[in-house]
Specification:
- This protein is of the alpha/beta class.
- It is built from five helices and five strands.
- The chain has helices spanning 12-21, 36-46, 62-72, 87-96, 108-119, and strands at residues 3-8, 27-33, 50-53, 78-82, 100-103.
- Helix 2 (36-46) packs parallel to helix 3 (62-72).
- The two termini are 16 Å apart.
Length: 120
Amino acid sequence: MAKRVMVVDDSREVHVQMASLLEDTDYEVAAFCRSGEEAVGRYGQVGPDLVTMDIIMPGMDGLKTAQTILERDPDARIVMVSELAYHGTFEEAEALGARGFVGKPFGKERLLEAFWDALR
C-alpha cells in the first residue's frame, strides 16, 4: 500500500511536479494544501504518512505550520521543501521536529531519499 503524502505549498507547479515524481513509487499525493492554515485544518482528516512543507507561503509560514501540526501530533513526519536552503533554516526546522529538508529545485532521487529517512 502506498504511503500517503500531504503536499503543503502555495505553488501549483510544485503539486504537479510532486505528483509526477511520485508516479510509480511507494508514495501517492493524498492531499495538496496551498496554505499553512489549510494544512493544519486538513491534517487530521487526511491522516498522511508524510507531509512536505514549503516555508514561504502567504499567511502562516511553513515553520509555524510544522510547529502547529507537531504540537497536535508529535509523531507527524514532516520534510521541509524550500528554496531557503541555508544552515539557519535547517537548524530551525530540525529544532521544531522536522525530519528532513530538501532544497528547491528538487529531483526524484533526493526527494525519495528524504522520505525514506523521515519514515524510518
